[in-house]
Design goal:
8-stranded parallel beta sheet; Diaminopimelate Epimerase, Chain A, domain 1; 18 helices; alpha/beta; 6-stranded mixed beta sheet
Length: 565
């Protein structure tokens, strides 16, 4: 399958190498006054002026009101806090848009509720006589239920009739299929064997599949689901961007597959991208597509394919994160007591070779690593490639996606090697309900190491992993600052950080990670005018109220893309 191209793509913004000097004329397109501006550059201001999508002046109300002309759009902020545009540094944007329109089991609290929602959704599909009759969605999690037993196909077989069902777990590394879907995929008591990097969960006595598929095994069923059309994907992208803009998100680092590219290129070409996209292409063999990625016409401040996404392992919730020692809880009793290395990292030198080839072409590597041993192997691989290539790659940084459980001795290596720690603080809020039981309390040092990494000088960026969890950045900030998990308790508070550190991880740091900090990240002269007006002063509210913060106005390149005033 060929990757999409973007012949004829244009952008209304200056390209990333444009001059950052202030424009000569002194009539602004947009002015924001009477604000409390956190510039991200160590200073505050009252007002800001925008010309041609870029910041023309930052200063006092008196200074900036001089920029107002007959056609200037003026926003009176009424003393509200303004921050630079928020970047979600790890999500799946088109998938997120699709899940806004699918069955959501995120908040179900029991088996009965789970089954009832599947039954209702199945009836809806059958009544509509859908041309795509599969029931998909999910994002379920059982850890907080009174009975946290894993779901089985028998739960939903009786309510799904002839409708094939496949529902992913919260983390996307496990899914539940009903008997119809398993039959379509050819999965029964006789086979097939577990694929590399995956597990078909089976009844110990009969060998019958339970319906639970882990990591690479999910593709056996997922590959049978009718593919969405390009129009479907484009509409999902538009839904996702509207949702993100309403949350103050102006940029994303997308870590998804090639099927999303035509929708992104179309939005770029048609001028409908209201969220900037830095794309890390998730494919199993990077080397085969390096030349094609480098040939893409679209690469500017709105959209650019900047590198590749890879996998070292699975997830903690599915017990497929690859750990240095076996899991501590009974749920991990299996043929893989320490988790699984992903297929593209089996053996690890396979992934290392792809990293080396991508780096030689100036493309970034962003690799998923959850378990402490997976992280250790990945960091060793990055170190080996950096020793071979030296620093001639300039601003191209290696990224560790999640870095969720680290051996303590690996934490200082992030600074030493210039690695990006791409973290998702809301995962801590989620996983804190069961992580200690899964790993053992003595192994928690090095887990969710927001403060340790920050104080060690690592470049820390925050994201959500949406649609795995909410993409609301203020809920992510609250999790990082308070240490509060979803059951209401405070967990590993020694890894909590300050509000300003959390803000930096969502605003200042992501453009550094992406090599475009000359253009974005702070509200300074000449930079692109991405900013958010907040409902409350996040720097001064009680930490328990951080997650109540909302975006009031979201601005991308001087254009208002969300306004709830």
């Amino acid at each position: 399958m060929l990757l999409a191209t973007c012949a004829g793509c244009t952008s209304t913004e200056p390209r990333a190498d444009a001059s950052r000097q202030a424009p000569v004329r002194h009539i602004a397109d947009l002015v924001v006054v009477d604000a409390r501006i956190w510039t991200g550059a160590g200073s505050d201001a009252q007002a800001i002026a925008v010309v041609d999508g870029r910041i023309a002046a930052v200063g006092t109300d008196h200074d900036i009101r001089r920029w107002i002309g007959t056609d200037t759009k003026v926003i009176e902020a009424h003393g509200r806090r303004i921050i630079p545009g928020i970047t979600d540094s790890h999500l799946h944007i088109v998938s997120g848009g699709q899940h806004l329109d699918r069955l959501n089991l995120r908040d179900v609290a029991s088996k009965q509720d789970f089954v009832a929602k599947v039954a209702a959704a199945t009836r809806s599909i059958q009544a509509a006589e859908s041309k795509r009759p599969w029931l998909t969605g999910g994002r379920w999690s059982v850890e907080s239920w009174d009975d946290p037993a894993s779901p089985r196909k028998e739960w939903i077989d009786s309510v799904s009739a002839d409708t094939p069902v496949f529902l992913s777990r919260m983390d996307g590394h496990q899914g539940l299929a009903n008997s119809v879907a398993l039959r379509l995929a050819g999965i029964d008591a006789n086979g097939p064997p577990d694929p590399t990097g995956g597990v078909i969960d089976r009844d110990a006595a009969t060998g019958e599949p339970t319906g639970i598929l882990k990591d690479a095994a999910m593709s056996l069923v997922a590959g049978r689901i009718p593919a969405a059309s390009e129009d479907d994907l484009y509409m999902a992208l538009l839904r996702a961007m509207k949702h993100l803009n309403a949350l103050g998100v102006t940029s994303v680092h997308d870590v998804s597959g090639r099927s999303d590219l035509p929708a992104m290129f179309r939005a770029h070409r048609e001028g409908t991208l209201t969220t900037r996209v830095r794309k890390y292409l998730s494919v199993t063999d990077w080397v085969k597509v390096i030349d094609q990625v480098k040939s893409f016409d679209a690469c500017d401040a709105r959209l650019c394919v900047v590198g590749f996404k890879g996998y070292m392992d699975g997830s903690l919730g599915s017990r497929t994160a690859y750990m240095y020692r076996p899991y501590a809880d009974a749920e991990a009793e299996s043929d893989y007591p320490s988790g699984l290395l992903a297929g593209m990292a089996t053996p690890p030198k396979r992934l290392r070779y792809m990293i080396e080839r991508a780096d030689a072409e100036g493309l970034q590597s962003a690799v998923h690593a959850i378990g402490d041993e997976a992280n250790h192997i990945l960091i060793d691989s990055y170190q080996a490639v950096r020793r071979k290539h030296g620093d001639q790659r300039g601003s191209v940084r290696f990224r560790v996606e999640h870095a969720q459980h680290l051996l303590p001795e690996d934490i200082p290596r992030f600074k030493e090697l210039g690695l990006v720690a791409s973290l998702q603080p809301y995962h801590k809020a989620d996983d804190g309900r069961y992580a200690e039981a899964a790993l053992g309390a003595e192994r928690l040092p090095g887990s969710y190491a927001f403060r340790s990494l920050t104080e060690a000088g690592a470049l820390v960026v925050f994201g959500s992993d949406w649609p795995v969890v909410t993409c609301n950045p203020f809920k992510g900030m609250a999790a990082a600052v308070t240490g509060r998990i979803l059951n209401g308790t405070i967990w590993i508070p020694e890894e909590s950080i300050t509000v300003e550190q959390a803000l930096s991880a969502y605003t200042v740091n992501p453009p550094i990670a992406g090599g475009i900090d000359e253009e974005l990240g702070t509200l300074e002269l000449g930079k692109l005018a991405d900013m958010v007006i907040l409902s409350q002063d996040i720097l001064h509210v009680h930490q328990d109220d951080i997650d109540e913060t909302r975006a009031v106005v979201t601005i991308v390149g001087g254009t208002i893309v969300f306004d709830e005033r």
